Structure prediction request, 380 residues.
Amino acid sequence: MSETPNPVTYASAGVDVEAGDRAVELMKDAVKATHGPGVVGGVGGFAGLFDLSVLKDFKKPYLATSTDGVGTKVAIAQALDIHHTIGQDLVGMVVDDIVVTGARPLFMTDYIATGKVVPERVADIVRGVAEGCSLAGTALVGGETAEHPGLLAENEYDVAGAATGIVEADELLGPDRVREGDVLIAMASSGIHSNGYSLVRKVINVAGWGLERQVDELGRTLGEELLEPTRIYTADCLDLMEAFPVNGEDGQTGSGIRGFSHVTGGGLAANLARVLPVGTVGLVDRSTWEIPAIFRLVEELGGVPQADLERTLNLGVGMIAVVDPSVADAAVARLNDRGLSSWILGTVQKDDGSYSSNSDYVQGAKGVDGGAAVLLNQYR
Prediction:
């Protein structure tokens, strides 16, 4: 076999191992800052370790797990070369699916695939993940950065994450706890969050708007608005469950929290329907809130039909709490005192068939044969 005049190395194939090591050095302090007493070991192990003995007081613990990404929002971050916010988006999309079950997220891992490892860029992304984990009270116990030359361009990347949480079996939230007459509480979103960016990007491209464009209605540039991080609701939801317990003194569903719905892909009605029992309908009153300016802008620039907006974007509501009517006002006040704009959104009623002919009626969403939801009236 003849000797190759120009030997092929891993580096010549486009993979820079040393750059990956430098990225770890830049991010490790931010990661360590999320570690509490349950985390075993430090950064750089083959696997993240968590000491479950810190949870020894649980009687019948259930583990909850979730995984997600942030979709095409990464294209906005890449276009603007701003990468320190996308990590918070990732955390929000994962941990707030876990808290919907009543579980407390314990730890998270992340994954970054990129065409070329730029240590500073990777470290910015992971710092954002760490900041998001801190907001959620969740440990970042590990992750992976993969360099994929030839598959992704040098400045392209995608992110994904997974988290695990824990909930006492008799405090698990689900449709079985929801009752007719329960009240729906809206928690405001911070903007578009991380769903629907394929629609949003298409609209701004068709309109010919640049991300650097200053938009008076937004009070900042379009790019700054579109990169606003996803609000993380975990701490607020856990606080509500502590203030208004899921169970009464008899151990049965009490006069407190009945459930939560994280408003992500599919919009408000579809995600609400998933957490309601068969035979009930969530009646959502559009007149209780004003759609934030960014959503109106997308609607007007693209001539997007309202029904399409509602099936794609959160339109200003990022999380919904379902509560016993006796605590509804107190729960709204508590959320607002925490700095989270919240309001009574509607109620849960028996689905007697009178709403099923409404074009805004949704039932059986996301493969769940559960309840239904319908949006009524007009926005402010």
Remarks:
- The chain has a mean pLDDT of 93.
- The chain has eleven helices and 15 strands.
- The radius of gyration is 22 Å.
